[in-house]
Amino acid sequence: MYLIESDVIAALHHPTPDQAVLSWITDVPPNRLHISAVAVGEIQADIEETRAKDPLKAQELEEWLLRLRCAYNVLAADAATFREWARLVHDRLEAPAGNAIIAATAVVHRLTVVTGNVEHFEPFGVPTLNPFKPKS
Q1: Would you give the distance in Å from CA 32 to the centre of its chain?
Q2: Side-chain half-sphere of 113: how many Cα atoms within 13 Å?
Q3: In whole angstroms, what is the distance from residue 32 CA to residue 94 CA?
Q4: Mean per-residue pLDDT, 60-74
Q5: What secondary structure does DSSP assign to 18-60, as a single string?
Q6: Cα(56)–Cα(123) distance, rounded to whole angstroms?
Q7: What does the alpha-carbon distance between residue 75 and residue 54 come to, in Å, rounded to a whole number?
Q8: Sheet order of strands, 2-4 included
Q9: In 33-134, which ranges are E strands?
Q10: Distance (Å, whole) CA 91 – CA 19
Q11: Are 74 and 40 in contact (CB under 8 A)?
Q12: Cα(12)–Cα(65) distance, rounded to whole angstroms?
């Protein structure tokens, strides 16, 4: 099962979606795909930046985010996740909080983090998959 990071989500929403990502995600049953609440927050932050420049585009993105939240299981950061987060960041407090919470979510739910930024998750020792690399 997989935890999809925001860079992958964004690549799918692009007017010309990344073909390798599109190919990967269409091969995975939807019930095996999850999104972290952190990714939802990251996307919402981008929507808020857009709102200042283009309110109509921001509304379109809000509607897309709502559809996304309905399509995939969004995993909240609960007490078990934050306990794992504390274990992961112990002795590496410089680690970005969002990445560490996503990694903790993956550990708690036994998921593979799907991201183009594999190097952001390597310090946490969680399984990762880069869907931007075409199948060989």
Answers
A1: 14
A2: 31
A3: 31
A4: 93
A5: -HHHHHHHHTS-GGGEEEEHHHHHHHHHHHHHHHHH-HHHHHH
A6: 39
A7: 30
A8: 73-75, 33-36, 2-4, 112-114, 128-129
A9: 33-36, 73-75, 112-114, 128-129
A10: 39
A11: yes
A12: 12
- Grouping H, G, I as helix, E, B as strand and the rest as coil, residue 117 is coil
Structure confidence by residue, pLDDT tens digits, 85-125: 999 998 776 777 889 999 999 999 999 999 999 999 999 99
Task: Give me 101's structure tokens.
Answer: 């919470």
How far apart CA 96 and CA 21 sit, in angstroms, is: 25
For residue 82, give both structure tokens: 């934050």
pTM: 0.90
- CATH match of 2-129 with 3.40.50.1010: yes
Give the residues across from 33 on adjacent strands: 2
Cβ contact 38:105 at 8 Å: yes
Vertex 97, ends 95 and 102: CA angle to 5°? 105
- Return the amino acid letter for 10: A
